Structures are given as structure tokens and as C-alpha cells.
TrEMBL record:
It comes from Actinokineospora cianjurensis. The lineage of its organism: Bacteria, Bacillati, Actinomycetota, Actinomycetes, Pseudonocardiales. The keyword Transferase applies. One of its GO terms (molecular function) is acyltransferase activity, transferring groups other than amino-acyl groups. It comes from the Bacteria. SMART domains: HTH_MARR (SM00347). Keywords: Transferase. InterPro entries: Acyl_CoA_acyltransferase (IPR016181), GNAT_dom (IPR000182), HTH_MarR-typ (IPR000835), MarR/SlyA-like (IPR039422), WH-like_DNA-bd_sf (IPR036388), WH_DNA-bd_sf (IPR036390). GO terms for biological process: response to stress. Residues 173-311 form the N-acetyltransferase domain. This is RimJ/RimL family protein N-acetyltransferase.
Length: 311
């Protein structure tokens, strides 16, 4: 759609540009004063956000956030490691995976940069009431969606049937990026990862290896990384039930929708005529993925039943 000079939105776009321009300038000055490249500071901010949101940060994740190729990210992480801001560790369960952990020094650095400005911004926000802040939030979320470097680009996914080794790699994603209740039935609602819940995860997935008990479980692989799980549980000759979860850092990029499409293809090949799923009215991401793949949604209070005809 065209934009003309009289468009009311343009003024807001210019304001947003002024704010980001000012913050960029402050960040560049701060980076120079601390002997950092501006991109190194951006990387540190992403890593600090990941720590706060309990996301497992890997070099691949960081390269998506910064829109940099993997060689540049390797050089950048080398610099941050040398400066003592970041550590590289091997994931205990998935030895192929490198995790990036920010060190206390980086937290001190981040706070010395942002502490003052965050306090001033939060103070200024007290001039607005809850409803106004809710609109501001919705507006900023929407603008962020437009400029995101990692927005969905029809990701390519592969469904990998679970075996021992893949289950162990999947457990690593679950422990770092999901809660037990997101990923399996739990006893007494236990929702923290302990050796017992980790073993329950292994046992639960093992009980469905090779389609045992009528359920096939697949790890969802996107761009070479495991991101979550999708299952197909045969209910009858014609019908199968599905459910899925992704690690937090993989959500909202179209991977869930792509995984569901891939599952529909598997189901069609296995002679399934209808896929059903149960979710809740508040789960917009699950509902969006199901709707995009052609499901009809029926609401019963907060519960939603999805029916997806095949073929
Ligand atoms: C549900 C889940 C698998 C969906 O996968 P996803 O990759 O995050 O979803 P997608 O990026 O493919 O987005 C699907 C749709 O939901 C929308 N969406 C994604 N995240 C959203 C969010 N946080 N809020 C609102 N809508 C969202 C997308 O815009 C898209 O809608 P569209 O097709 O109309 O554009 C994933 O979010 C997840 O693992 N959630 C936690 C576990 C869970 O709830 N599992 C489902 C149980 S039934």
C-alpha cells in the first residue's frame, strides 16, 4: 500500500526513528567508551534478554537476532569471551550444541548503560494509566513485528522420528526452553526440571518409539536445530489426534505452522482422513497454526476442538 505525506502514521514513524536514532547514538558512545564494537553491544543486549526470558542462547540463535552470518558471529563471540562477558559451554545432553552464557560482568555493564535510562522511562510511564499503557504495548508489539529480523519466512522443517539419541537432544531443548507441563503429562502437576522429571520425559517418549501404542512422535528440526516435538496419535482407522510444543526461542516464527503442515502430509500418507486437536481459547499461536492449516475450530467455553480434514 502507498504512503502519502498526509498519512497520520508517518508522524509516529518519524518519532520512532528519532527514539531509536537517539538510543543507537547512546549505545555507540557507550560501546566506544568501553572498547566494544556497536554490534558487540547489541549482541550482549540480546544475550541479557535471553537470560531474563530463560531462552537457551546458541550462536545460531544469535546470528538470527543480529542478521549476521555464522563466521561473523563466531568472531563476535570470540571477542565477547576474551573480554570476559560471555562463556561458551557445551550442552551436557546435546554435545553438538554450544550455549552462550552471559557473565556477571556483562550484567554490570548492561546496567551501567541502561540503568539510568530505564529508570527515567519507567518514571515517565507513570503518567499513563493502565488502559493507555495497554494500547502502547499493543502498538509497540505490532511495530516490532514489522521490523523483526527473525520474522517468519516460511521456515523449512523436517520431522525426525524419535529414538534414544534424538530424545536426549529434545530433552535438552525442553529443559532449557520449556516447562515439564508444556511437554508431557506430569504427575501432581510437577512443573520444574529435576532428575525425576527428566527421567519421566525419557520414559514417556520411549513408550512411543516406532509408533508404539499408536502414537508417532517426531522431533521438529528447523535449519539443522531441534526446536520441539509434534505427535500423531491414532484414534481410529480414519482419525488421528495431534499436539505439539516448541522451545521458547523457536516460537512465533512460523515453525509450528510448518511442522503441522508436515504432519498433515505424514498423516495423509498413513491413510488418516481427519486430524483433531484440543487446545484453549487463549492459545492464539496454536489456534493460528491450526486455522492456517485449514482446521475448523469449535469453542466449548475455554476449550477449543480443532478438526482438520485431509485431502
Ligand atoms: C503452539 C505452538 C506450537 C505454535 O507454534 P509457533 O511456531 O509459535 O506458531 P507460528 O509462528 O507458526 O504461528 C502460528 C500463528 O499464531 C500466531 N502467533 C504466533 N505466536 C503468537 C503469539 N505469541 N500471540 C498471538 N499470535 C501468535 C502467528 O501470527 C500465526 O498466525 P497466522 O497464521 O494467522 O499468521 C508454539 O507457540 C508453542 O510451542 N507453544 C507452547 C506449547 C503449546 O501451547 N502447545 C500447543 C498445545 S495445543
Amino acid at each position: 500500500m502507498d504512503v502519502d505525506d498526509g498519512d497520520a502514521g508517518l508522524e509516529l514513524v518519524h518519532l520512532l526513528r528519532r527514539i531509536t536514532g537517539r538510543l543507537d547514538l547512546m549505545a555507540a558512545e557507550f560501546a566506544a567508551a568501553n572498547g566494544l564494537h556497536p554490534t558487540d553491544l547489541r549482541a550482549l543486549i540480546h544475550l541479557l534478554d535471553a537470560r531474563r526470558e530463560e531462552l537457551a542462547a546458541t550462536p545460531g540463535w544469535l546470528s538470527g537476532k543480529l542478521a549476521l552470518n555464522s563466521a561473523s558471529v563466531t568472531a563476535l563471540v570470540d571477542r565477547l569471551v576474551r573480554a570476559g562477558y560471555v562463556r561458551r559451554t557445551r550442552d551436557n545432553r546435546d554435545r553438538r550444541r554450544v550455549l552462550l552464557t552471559v557473565q556477571d560482568e556483562a550484567i554490570r555493564l548492561g546496567w551501567s548503560f541502561y540503568g539510568g535510562i530505564i529508570t527515567d522511562m519507567v518514571d515517565a510511564m507513570r503518567e499513563f494509566d493502565g488502559a493507555e499503557l495497554a494500547v502502547a504495548r499493543r502498538f509497540l508489539d505490532r511495530m516490532h513485528d514489522v521490523v523483526r529480523a527473525d520474522k517468519p519466512t516460511n521456515p523449512v522443517v523436517r520431522l525426525v522420528p524419535l529414538d534414544e539419541a534424538t530424545t536426549e537432544r529434545l530433552l535438552s531443548v525442553a529443559v532449557h526452553e520449556a516447562r515439564p507441563t508444556d511437554v508431557m503429562p506430569t504427575q501432581d502437576g510437577a512443573d520444574t526440571w529435576t532428575p525425576a522429571t527428566e527421567n519421566a520425559f525419557r520414559e514417556f517418549h520411549r513408550s512411543h518409539f516406532h509408533g508404539a501404542n499408536g502414537t508417532v512422535m517426531y522431533a521438529v528440526e528447523s535449519e539443522g536445530s531441534l526446536t520441539g516435538m509434534i505427535r500423531m496419535a491414532r484414534v481410529s482407522q480414519d482419525e488421528a489426534e495431534t499436539g505439539m510444543w516448541l522451545g521458547r526461542s523457536a516460537r512465533g516464527k512460523g515453525i509450528g505452522t510448518a511442522a503441522l503442515r508436515a504432519l498433515v502430509a505424514e498423516a495423509a500418507a498413513a491413510g488418516v482422513r481427519t486430524i483433531v486437536a484440543d487446545t484453549t481459547s487463549g492459545n492464539s499461536a496454536a489456534l493460528g497454526a491450526l486455522r492456517t492449516c485449514g482446521a475448523t475450530l469449535t469453542h466449548h467455553g475455554d476449550d477449543v476442538r480443532a478438526e482438520l480434514p485431509i485431502g
